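Below is how a single chain appears once it has passed through the pipeline. First comes the sequence as given, then the structure the pipeline wrote out for it. We keep one example in the README because the format questions we get most often are answered faster by looking than by reading.
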Amino acid sequence: MQASADVNRRIARITAHLNPRTNNLKMEGSSNLRLENCRAKGGSPGFKVAILGAAGGIGQPLAMLMKMNPLVSVLHLYDVVNTPGVTADISHMDTGAVVIHFLSFLISIS
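Resulting structure:
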């Protein structure tokens, strides 16, 4: 019976996050949580997700799974190489999530 209550509590928390009340938004004692921080740019419902190492062997399938997830509205892909190609491949999937790539540069200090 306890597991069912935990599942219902988690579902309620996700639902409240995706459809927050605009009059009073507080979550677990946090006073700096604002409506614009909970939503992707433009007010579309869902989470913003960043994947670091998106061009690697684990990052590519993870990016695909995140793109397929209906709770994700914006997907940022970061890596040092090949991120534009991965972004092009992932963005062809027919979902509502927006995919944006970023190239990171390594700086070696000797």
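The longest helix spans residues 2-18.

See the next section for the split statistics.
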